[in-house]
Amino acid sequence: MKQWWLQQSARIDALSLRERAFVFLSVIACCLALADVLWLSPAMGAHQLQTQQFAAQNAELQRLRTELQSAPTPVDVNLPLRTEVAALQQKLMELQSQVTAVAGSGSPALEPVLAEFLRRREGLSLLSTATLANDASAGKDSTVTGVTRRGVELKVAGPYGELLKYVKSLEQALPNLRWGPMQLRSEKQPPELTLQVFVLEVQP
Question: What is the domain-level CATH number for residue 145?
Answer without folding.
Answer: 3.30.70.60
